[in-house]
């Protein structure tokens, strides 16, 4: 199908039930469909929204266009979980098409207020000349997961921003509400954090831009998130168009974090001893992450595993993208650590296979498993995943725990090529002469690699033949290691 603008933005009612059912049947047969990652039943998935805990369950929504692997008229699809691992898809929850979201219900967040869940999101509106207006909107969800929109904007874009004004994070600090919104300043076309304040969720005061010393953050900030982790304030966001001098990055758009002592909501000042930004994920495909502070005292994050303006092989199958695993956040030595949640262990379907020092780890691993490895210091090697036993058909993890100290993820030979303009390898530095700990999750077309207890995470998509199932070390040199292999079930 040729996706004209008219087709992308026609009402959902224009699609018959037969069309919807056929799309879902087609997508369900994809060999690349993940088993334990949230993925769309059809069409496109992008930003996670409304990540929250309400009414005894975890909730996450994702931005969706259910009718093709393209960006069109966006809705929110609702998923719920009892443990942050097993997610149940409830279908479309927040429908677009009203006066202030006529061209899409875009990203936003959620807060539990009294006995309801309050959703704050961006409504996208286009006029006849296709000029965009964005509105920050609200909706209430009750305990039956029924959503009622508020029929007037909470916040209309101020005159000092362009039409790039979106992705509100709703925060409640004591008895006051704040909204942190990604913006582009109209005068200098730079990315900014807009801050708003309200006592009642109806009347919002513009507090101006957050004042920081993080430097030039490009031409737009998307998906701002403020969370508190181990006594530190952590700001997670996506700076589009940031200079390579300020943040060397290979992805088309980065997802970053910075750690401070606090955001002063009275003055709008970001307080931090070190005004630096760091990649949230050092892999290929993480964007639009959403984090929140949960009632259990932990902070959690979930990400879109996909990037804007990139074509993926599943586009031809009428679906695209998935969400990452939920990760628990920690701050250690002023670094943000990301850890798989403990409930991931409930996916294990067989007794773990212990591994030690053999060249071929698992001959028939399948493509749905967890691999834990402890690699000794002072050695180099190449771990082959999703492999036929050769480097020519493998996802490669090249490591040096000796003098050079590096880990390189190379997806150039794992299957179908895509996004090669942005490189086929990603590299992180390792401490020299120290052991390397890896916790790797493979899920058909998704790989998440947790390095040294979550100090670094490298996430990527790959699209390989399903018969490539071997895990082995390349070459003949003996690698000193220990570890385990665990087969994982669907969520």
Structural key phrases:
ConA-like_dom_sf; 491 residues; globular; mainly beta; 37 strands; 2 helices; glycosidase
Uncertain segments are: none
Overall geometric form: globular
Helix content class:
under 10%
SS-derived structural category: mainly beta
Question: How much strand content do the residues show?
Answer: over 45%
Number of strands: 37
Largest sheet features: 6 strands, antiparallel
Average pLDDT, rounded to a whole number, is: 97
Which strands sit side by side, in order, in the main sheet? 26-37-28-33-34-35
Quickly count the helices.
2
Give the radius of gyration.
Answer: 22 Å
Cα-to-Cα separation, first versus last residue: 32 Å
Family: Belongs to the glycosyl hydrolase 32 family.
Pathway: Glycan biosynthesis; sucrose metabolism
EC number: 3.2.1.26
Protein name: Sucrose-6-phosphate hydrolase
Question: Brief description of this entry?
Answer:
The protein has 491 residues and is mostly beta strands. It has helices at 5-8, 17-28; strands at residues 43-54, 57-65, 75-81, 87-94, 105-113, 116-126, 132-141, 147-149, 155-156, 161-173, 176-185, 191-198, 205-209, 220-229, 232-240, 256-260, 262-264, 269-271, 278-279, 286-293, 299-305, 319-320, 322-323, 327-332, 335-340, 353-356, 360-362, 368-375, 380-387, 395-400, 406-410, 425-429, 436-443, 446-451, 456-461, 470-473, 481-487.
Provide a descriptive summary of the structure in words.
It is an enzyme of class 3 (hydrolase). Belongs to the glycosyl hydrolase 32 family. Residues 37-340 form the Glycosyl hydrolase family 32 N-terminal domain. Pathway: Glycan biosynthesis; sucrose metabolism. The protein is 3% helix and 49% strand. The protein has 2 helices and 37 strands. It has helices at residues 5-8, 17-28; strands at residues 43-54, 57-65, 75-81, 87-94, 105-113, 116-126, 132-141, 147-149, 155-156, 161-173, 176-185, 191-198, 205-209, 220-229, 232-240, 256-260, 262-264, 269-271, 278-279, 286-293, 299-305, 319-320, 322-323, 327-332, 335-340, 353-356, 360-362, 368-375, 380-387, 395-400, 406-410, 425-429, 436-443, 446-451, 456-461, 470-473, 481-487. A 6-stranded antiparallel beta sheet has the order 26-37-28-33-34-35, with no helix packed on it. The protein has a 6-stranded antiparallel beta sheet with strand order 27-36-29-30-31-32, with no helix packed on it. A 5-stranded mixed beta sheet has the order 4-3-2-1-22, with no helix packed on it. The mean pLDDT is 97.
């Amino acid at each position: 199908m040729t996706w004209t603008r008219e087709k992308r933005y026609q009402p959902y009612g224009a699609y018959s039930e037969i069309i919807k059912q056929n799309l879902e049947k087609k997508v369900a047969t994809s060999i690349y469909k993940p088993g334990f990652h949230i993925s769309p039943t059809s069409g496109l998935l992008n930003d996670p929204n409304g990540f929250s805990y309400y009414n005894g369950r975890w909730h996450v929504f994702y931005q969706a266009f259910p009718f093709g692997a393209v960006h069109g008229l966006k809705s929110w699809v609702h998923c719920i979980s009892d443990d942050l691992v097993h997610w149940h898809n409830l279908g479309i929850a927040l429908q677009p098409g009203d006066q202030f979201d006529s061209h899409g219900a875009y990203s936003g967040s959620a807060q539990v207020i009294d006995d309801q869940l309050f959703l704050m999101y961006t409504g996208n509106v286009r006029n006849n000349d296709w000029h965009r207006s964005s509105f920050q909107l609200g909706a209430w969800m009750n305990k039956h997961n029924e959503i009622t929109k508020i029929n007037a904007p909470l916040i209309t874009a101020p005159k000092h921003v362009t039409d790039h004004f979106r992705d509100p994070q709703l925060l409640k600090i004591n008895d006051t509400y704040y909204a942190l919104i990604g913006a582009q300043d109209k005068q200098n076309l730079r990315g900014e954090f807009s801050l708003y304040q309200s006592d009642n969720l109806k009347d919002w005061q513009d507090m101006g831009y957050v004042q920081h010393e993080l430097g030039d953050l490009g031409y737009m900030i998307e998906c701002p998130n403020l969370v508190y982790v181990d006594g530190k304030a952590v700001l997670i966001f996506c700076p589009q168009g940031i200079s390579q001098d300020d943040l060397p990055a290979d992805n088309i758009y980065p997802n970053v974090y910075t750690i401070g002592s606090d955001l002063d909501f009275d003055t709008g000042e970001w307080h931090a001893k070190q005004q630096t930004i760091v990649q949230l994920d050092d892999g290929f495909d993480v964007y639009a992450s959403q984090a929140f502070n949960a009632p259990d005292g932990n902070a959690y994050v979930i990400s879109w595993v996909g990037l804007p303006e990139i074509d993926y092989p599943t586009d031809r199958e009428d679906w695209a993208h998935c969400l990452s695993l939920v990760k628990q956040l920690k701050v250690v030595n002023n670094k943000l650590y990301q850890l798989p949640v403990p409930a991931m262990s409930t996916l294990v379907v067989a007794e773990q296979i212990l591994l030690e020092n053999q060249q071929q780890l698992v001959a028939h691993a399948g493509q749905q498993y967890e691999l834990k490895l402890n690699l000794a210091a002072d050695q180099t090697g190449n771990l082959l995943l999703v492999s036929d036993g050769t480097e020519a058909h493998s996802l490669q993890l090249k490591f040096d725990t000796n003098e050079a100290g590096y880990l390189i993820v190379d997806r150039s030979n794992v299957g179908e090529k895509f996004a090669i303009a942005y490189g086929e390898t990603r590299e992180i530095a390792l401490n020299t002469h120290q052991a390397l700990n890896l916790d790797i999750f493979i899920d058909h077309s998704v790989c998440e690699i947790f390095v040294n207890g979550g100090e670094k995470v490298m996430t990527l998509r790959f699209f390989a033949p399903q018969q490539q199932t071997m895990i082995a070390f390349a070459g003949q040199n003996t690698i000193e290691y220990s570890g385990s292999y665990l087969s994982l079930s669907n969520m």
